[in-house]
Structure formats: C-alpha cells, structure tokens
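4.2 Preliminary Data

To establish feasibility before requesting continued support, the project team ran the inverse folding procedure on a target of 269 residues. The structure was first converted into the token representation described in Section 3, and no sequence information of any kind was made available to the design step. The complete token record follows.
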C-alpha cells in the first residue's frame, strides 16, 4: 500500500511528464496541423498554469520563510542590545546617585572640625525589637562603642556594639536613644528620645517655652556625645493641653532611615 504522500508525489511527476510530452507534440506539429496544436494547447494550458502557480507559491513561501528567519534573528539581536542598554543605563543612574550621596558626605566631612570615618550600611537589626543598622567598620578601623554616627541630613545615632570589622549603630528613633537638644530659634532645651513610630519626642521642654511647628531641633553638645549644632529634625506637633510644667512636642527626624546607605562616624579628637 502506497501512502497518500507518495501517491501525491507520483501524480505530480506524471502530470509534469505529460506536460512535457504535450509540449513536444505541439512543437513538432505547430506548422503542419494547427488543429492538433490547438487541442494540445487546450489540454496543456491548465497543467502549465497549475504548475506555474505551484512553483510561484513555493518560491514565495520559501522567500518568506527566510525573511521571517532573518527578522527573527534581527529581533533577537535587538532584544539583546536593548537589554544591555537598559542594564548600562541603570548602572549610570546608580553611579550618578552614589556620586551625589558621596558628594554630600564629603561636604559635611569638610565642614566638621572633628575627624570622621566613612562607612557603608550593610544590614539592619533582624530582631525587630531595636532600631539599629550594621555598618562595615569596626575596632580594626578605630571604631568604639559610644561614637556618634551622622549622615548629610543630620544625626543617625551612636555605636552600641563594635567588632573587628563591623559595628551596630542604634538609631535616634530607637526607644533607648536620648540626645540632649535645643530649639535652634530660641535655644529652648529638652531631650530628643525615640518612639515607636517614625516621630521622636522632645521631652522636658518647659510649658512656657515658645516652641512652634517647623522649628529646627539641633544637638546641644551638653551630653558629651554629639557635637553641638548637629541637625536632628523639625517640630511636627506641639500639645499644651495636658497639665504639668512640660509641653508635649513631637519631632520628625531629618534623616530617612529607610533609605540610608552611607554614614560618617565621628572619631575622638
């Protein structure tokens, strides 16, 4: 039993041979018998048209196949080039942002009279009980417990644990943090302490003190830890409704601790 595919091929070959025979007969009798030539022409023409259409279709299909293959390869190449360009652009943007952060750190480093040490933030306290970060500087670099840590926007916190290569920094928003501070405008004093939320509390500010929303709070230098005049935050809320000699003042820190990447450690004189 012949398969349908083999039968189709045999029929196509027979049609092609018959076409050649008819053409040969028509050519030999072209000048002697016009009637035979007409019959041959009428019989051969449909086969010629079919074969011609088939050849044209196959050529067109073959040409389009190679065209699609070429387009597919070009598309793959362009996709790779686009991915490389995006990656390169991302690197340029990241480098530009890093340069801007380092420039700001250099400005504050130059402005401070104390010696400072650059450090990168490499982790955060995983426990969730403390507001702390881990930096890539330790006792091998001269870092010790109690050293203040700052950023271009203001105070970050202080070193609480130092190993040879790394240190843990307690942030100023931690509940255990307390920094002696004052209102920059009128020098009203108090203690900036960490709270559970993103705001700090400006404690022990006398009720009679003129503290307003928007006032800038800076370190007083009286705690012997942070140098005087370092920025802490701005007054976000003032409440005097509670009885007592103190008013309730909430402070929003200048530093965005969620996006902190580089810091400066203030070294002893």
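Position-by-position output of the design step:
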């Amino acid at each position: 039993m012949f398969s349908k595919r083999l039968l189709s091929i045999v029929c196509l070959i027979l049609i092609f041979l018959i076409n050649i025979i008819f053409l040969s007969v028509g050519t030999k009798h072209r000048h002697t018998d016009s009637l035979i030539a007409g019959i041959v022409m009428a019989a051969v023409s449909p086969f010629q048209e079919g074969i011609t259409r088939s050849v044209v279709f196959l050529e067109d299909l073959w040409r389009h196949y190679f065209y699609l293959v070429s387009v597919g390869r070009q598309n793959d190449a362009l996709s790779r080039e686009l991915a490389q360009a995006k990656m390169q652009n991302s690197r340029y943007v990241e480098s530009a942002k890093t340069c801007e952060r380092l420039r700001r750190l250099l400005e504050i480093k130059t402005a401070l009279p104390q010696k400072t040490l650059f450090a990168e933030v490499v982790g955060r306290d995983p426990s969730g009980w403390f507001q702390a970060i881990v930096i890539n500087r330790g006792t091998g670099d001269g870092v010790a417990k109690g050293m203040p840590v700052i950023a271009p926007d203001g105070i970050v916190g202080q070193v609480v644990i130092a190993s040879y290569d790394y240190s843990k920094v307690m942030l100023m928003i931690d509940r255990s943090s307390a920094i002696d501070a004052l209102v920059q405008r009128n020098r009203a004093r108090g203690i900036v302490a960490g709270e559970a939320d993103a705001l700090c509390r400006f404690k022990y500010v006398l009720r009679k003190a003129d503290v307003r929303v928007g006032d800038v709070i800076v370190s007083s230098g009286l705690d012997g830890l942070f140098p005087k005049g370092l920025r802490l935050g701005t007054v976000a809320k003032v409440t005097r409704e509670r009885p007592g000699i103190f008013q309730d003042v909430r402070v929003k820190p200048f530093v965005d601790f969620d996006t902190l990447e580089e810091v400066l450690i203030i070294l002893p004189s």
